Amino acid sequence: MATVEVREFKEVNMKGGTVVAAFPSVGLVSTITATYLISTLKVDQVTALDSADFPSLSMVYAKKPKFPARVYASLDPKLAIFICEMPLPMATHRPVALALLRWAKDHGCRQVVPLEGLPVDPDLPATGETSVWGVGSTDGARAELDKRGIPQLETGMIAGVTGVLLNEGRWLKADVIALLAEARFGMPDARAAVSLVRTLDQLLPEIQIELGPLQDQAKSLEDHLRRLKDQAKSIVPPEPVPSEMYR
Q1: Residues near 185 by beta carbon (within 8 Å), at least 6 away in sequence
Q2: Could you tell me if residue 246 is inside a domain?
Q3: Residue 215 domain-assigned (yes or no)
Q4: Residue 233's pLDDT is what?
Q5: The domain spanning residue 206 has which CATH number?
Q6: What digits encode the pLDDT tens for the residues 204-214?
Q7: Which of 78, 143, 136 is nearest to 108 (CA)?
Q8: Which residue segment(s) compose the domain that 198 sits in?
């Protein structure tokens, strides 16, 4: 199994907090959501995940190089945001999930909330608000979804790191709540990300997320992420999309 190294830049007290995890997904909805949270909340980068099996690349923001897989944290509210902006080799899915669960446990976090896209037909007209579904790893996690009025996925399949997080969460009796937004396949879908942010705000009453700026910036975010995706194609060998799901 691949080895994933956790590199701590800064120690933080996250006891009782939540880890929101975003991996490349259908419509890039998870990346759009995490990018928006990082840009609007007061957070610092505290951790990076690295592996010899990851693609060799650096993300440059504000003239500074960044690890492609990293964790930002806010102390008030206690929220950690894990963002990964590159497609991960399938051999790293399990060790990344285990490293993230271990980090959450070591820092006293109460739950992990991975974000994903649920593919819909791209030819369907985009009308109204897209649907968001939840999946909980434990009875407590499923009760929380019921409490917050978030519909639960009845049957289906979730692949990639999120699938591992849910399975390991059930085995370890750790609360993992996956949020799945219906999104167009093959293109950035900021409209679906707006629905995902709204549902995340519903799930986590301790945070207040203003949706207006995301709705206004949707087009520029889509263009930015489309450029990143195109650049990654020349660096990262293609693999089956790990976030494809059905229901």
Answers
A1: 26, 27, 119, 120, 122, 244
A2: no
A3: yes
A4: 62
A5: 3.40.50.10900
A6: 998 888 877 77
A7: 78
A8: 5-240
Output the 3-class SS for the chain.
CCCCEEEECCCCCCCCCEEEEECCCHHHHHHHHHHHHHHHCCCEEEEEEECCCCCCCCEEECCEEECCEEEEEEECCEEEEEEECCCCCHHHHHHHHHHHHHHHHHCCCCEEEEEEEEEECCCCCCCCCCCEEEEECCHHHHHHHHHCCCCECCCCEECHHHHHHHHHHHHHCCCEEEEEEEEECCCCCHHHHHHHHHHHHHHCCCCCCCCHHHHHHHHHHHHHHHHHHHHHHCCCCCCCCCCCEEC
| CA 216 to the chain's CA centroid | 21
Residue 177 forms part of a structural domain: yes
Q: What is the pLDDT of residue 204?
A: 95
Greater pLDDT, 224 or 19: 19
Domain count, the chain: 1
CB count in 10 Å sphere of residue 13: 11
Structure tokens at 220: 């520029």
Residue 203 falls inside a structural domain: yes
Neighbours of 92 (CB within 10 A): 21
pLDDT, one tens digit per residue, over 129-155 is 789 999 999 999 999 999 999 999 999
Query: What is the residue whose two structure tokens read 């592996």?
Result: 51
Contact assessment for residue 25 and residue 31, using Cβ atoms and an 8 Å cutoff: yes
Among the listed residues 100, 84, 198, 187, the one whose alpha carbon sits nearest the alpha carbon of residue 148:
198
